[in-house]
Write a structure and sequence with these properties.
heterodimer; A: 0% strand; B: Rossmann fold; six-stranded parallel sheet
């Protein structure tokens, strides 16, 4: 019974969202607000259940019961930083939220810097340096050089520089075209998913 | 106004209606389709297929309902492949709204192969702050996941006792609709040399081919097409395969729209110029 109710609710909301294609309407607005509200509520519950409670509250209790006082009281630091983050909407205390933000940005930058070099820049550069023995390798090298030249702004794009940068534009446009083609495929897939739901799960037309 | 120009300025709602018909009719009529498997998907399949039985596969469910029609069929097909090969599966995720989708798949697929929770697969749940989690697993999984998503200690499951770091994981599968695929590749792959395959939405796929060509990932399953290819390799067609005729019809219609729109635009411009 619950499944049937759930399917009807989902079908109504799907139609509500799709109805925006005709024009904005109250059903669409209800569906949109429900999605935002439920997603936010769900995320809060998940973060409490999977993060805050087991890694902070429960861990604090466990360490205390095992007399690991240092490990227990260290947890007060992230707890205070978390509370400081919540001060953001209070104008007088908003400045406190900068500390956890600084902490997060610092960690993110530190980790990101290493990952960018180790996991992105070096492998990609090393893979670009291929022997020019196949058409694909030659095309890739031309594409990389021409695109880099296109983004070289210290000199006016005239003469040879202009010609190479125009080749670069062609490669960039091909990349945009491929990305756009994939995006169309992705959006159509989503429509197929919803239509399949409506005609398979809700109205059993597709068997 | 001439015919071409009239077609170029057609009401968008008529285009929506035509697109809806292009999607609905093939789903109802279900014409036969032949799925041609591409190299990146074949490589992803081979990466799973070559693992010896008992190996651990970690699947990161990093998509939510907004991309489920594309990525959920990949999750189902990969789970089928893993269980068919007697691999142990650890499911995790970095999106709160993604794990219910994992649960839907885990409530359906393992039963088809007689697999049991805790013995053959475990869902360790979600932790926010995915970069810290990805780097941290390289040190010790239990620093972040002491318990599974039900709150049961992971060490109470026999196969999990020997899983501590990436060294104990045979293959990492990221099913993503966002930046997590890049992060897994850069943090787990770059630092710990984990073998990774990625299943992603069509929007993400073009950005990930660079990693595939640089051998930073073993394979890519991109979009609904990729999911259908994987389904055909596993030998169990599902919703992705069913959706492919509709996808082809919609693409053909979009191409027709593009041609008509451009001809109309060019004619209108010529007339204005004249």
């Amino acid at each position: 019974m619950l499944n049937i109710i759930g399917t009807w609710v989902a079908a109504t909301l799907t139609i509500g969202i799709l109805s925006f294609l005709y024009r904005d309407n109250p059903l669409y607005k209800v569906a949109e607000h429900l999605y935002v509200g439920i997603s936010a509520g769900f995320a809060v519950i998940y973060i409490w259940s999977f993060d805050v409670y087991p890694m902070l509250v429960d861990a604090f209790r466990t360490h205390l019961s095992q007399r690991n006082y240092v490990e227990a009281w260290v947890l007060v630091v992230p707890a205070l930083l978390g509370l400081a983050m919540l001060c953001r909407p209070i104008p007088k205390l908003a400045v406190l939220s900068r500390w956890p933000l600084s902490f997060t940005i610092g960690i993110g930058s530190g980790l990101g810097l290493i990952a960018s070099v180790q996991g992105y820049l070096l492998p990609q550069v090393s893979d670009t340096l291929r022997p020019l023995v196949t058409v694909n390798n030659a095309l890739m090298s031309i594409g990389v050089i021409a695109t880099l030249v296109y983004f070289y702004f210290s000199r006016e794009h005239k003469g040879a520089l202009g010609a190479i940068s125009r080749v670069g534009i062609i490669f960039i446009m091909v990349a945009f075209g491929a990305a756009f083609g994939y995006t169309v495929m992705a959006r159509v897939s989503l429509l197929i998913g919803r239509v399949y739901f409506l005609f398979h799960d809700w109205l059993p037309i597709i068997r | 106004m001439k015919l071409w120009e009239r077609l170029a300025t057609i009401d968008r709602r008529i285009l929506y209606l035509l697109l809806a018909l292009a999607v609905v009719l093939p789903l109802i009529i279900r014409p036969r389709t032949r799925i041609q498997v591409s190299e990146p998907v074949q490589d992803a399949f081979t990466a799973v297929d070559q693992l010896p039985p008992g190996s651990v596969v970690m699947i990161s469910v990093d998509f939510d309902p907004s991309s489920a029609p594309e990525v959920q069929p990949m999750l189902i097909a990969i789970l089928r492949h893993c269980f068919k090969k007697d691999l142990k599966v650890i499911v995790t995720g970095h999106l709160a709204l993604g794990l219910p989708l994992a649960e839907i798949a885990l409530s359906q697929v393992p039963a088809e192969y007689g697999k049991v929770y805790g013995r053959d697969f475990v869902n360790i749940g979600y932790r926010p702050g995915y970069v810290a989690v990805m780097v941290g697993i390289g040190r010790e999984l239990r620093d972040f996941f002491k318990t599974d998503y039900k709150g049961v200690p992971i060490d109470s499951y026999p196969f999990m006792r020997s899983v501590h770091t990436y060294r104990d994981i045979g293959l990492l599968v990221d099913l993503a609709h966002g930046a997590t695929a890049d992060a897994w590749i850069q943090y787990a792959g770059g630092r710990y040399n984990v073998k990774i395959i990625v299943g992603c939405t069509g929007v993400n796929a073009p950005n990930l081919f660079q990693y595939y060509h640089a051998h930073q990932i073993a394979g890519i399953i991109g979009g609904l097409q990729g999911a259908a290819e994987y389904e055909s390799l596993v030998g169990k067609p599902g919703s992705a395969t069913l959706g492919m005729p509709a996808q082809s019809a919609a693409h053909a219609l979009v191409i027709v729209f593009l041609i008509i729109g451009n001809i109309g635009f060019l004619l209108a411009r010529r007339r204005k110029g004249g």
